[in-house]
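Bug report (template v2)

What were you trying to do?
Predict the complex of my protein with nicotinamide-adenine-dinucleotide.

What happened?
Run completed; filing so the output is reviewed.

Input:
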Amino acid sequence: MRIENSCVLVTGGSSGLGAACVANLLRQNANVVIADLSEPAESVLQEFEGRVVFAKTDVCDETELRAVIAAGEDRFGPLQGVVTCAGVLHAERLLPRDGVASLDAFRRVIDVNLIGTFNTLRLCGEAIARHDPNAEGERGVMVMTSSVTAYEGQIGQAAYAASKGAVASLTLPLARELSQHGIRVVSIAPGVFETPMMQAAPERVRQSLIEQTVFPKRLGHPDEFAALVSHVFQNTMLNGCTLRLDGSVRLAAK
Ligand SMILES: NC(=O)c1ccc[n+]([C@@H]2O[C@H](COP(=O)([O-])OP(=O)(O)OC[C@H]3O[C@@H](n4cnc5c(N)ncnc54)[C@H](O)[C@@H]3O)[C@@H](O)[C@H]2O)c1
């Protein structure tokens, strides 16, 4: 997929990893549609005026997602790229000191991280499949955000790890199915990245995660995630897999 002049939708594009993707894609002359519950930085909307649209969107809501896809295509033409970064973090033991884990909290994490991702892929997939393919038969590329917790969830991460493991598991069946439409599907499983989501974690947790990272001994920069997303868009042989981007971190039990 050629990034220049393409139309790319980024969920969760107002913050962290999604915002880094938005900025990187705009620098590469893509047109970008941001679907997020919170507003993007005013500076992004101003600097790239005319090439970026934002609509307040809950990824779990079919009507809102359809509206933002339609708004993006009206403005920029056929949708080709999708990046799903909308997500929430939640930590809770199954059996905390008092009581038992909240079922509502578990449902909320699965709703946003898994069902919101699936909702985005199905509605964007429907839009992309309607358009003409390029010379190689490719119509578009969808990149989902999983997590290394898909493989090594820590104590307290049952809900989050289950949601991200499910995203990794969606990747191959969707890539297989959508191949007939010329659409590739790839997931990225980040290790620990310096974003508002991680900034909310206590300092001792951050330090412990850095210690568990083999090399480099630091949190990942959102730009490094964005660079991989752009590579996936451009490398037609990448399909149906989940790529770890993690400095070789292997999360311990806690
Ligand atoms: N930061 C990390 O270390 C890390 C590691 C692995 C995976 N991830 C995943 O990467 C993705 C991005 O995380 P981040 O660190 O940039 O977090 P972030 O909190 O900075 O950004 C998440 C964005 O998602 C949006 N969002 C939340 N719920 C939404 C909903 N229902 N509909 C639309 N938008 C919604 C938020 O408003 C926010 O802008 C998440 O899926 C997260 O689970 C992050």
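What did the reviewer find?
Strands lie at 7-11, 31-36, 52-56, 79-84, 140-145, 183-190, 242-245. The longest strand covers residues 183-190.
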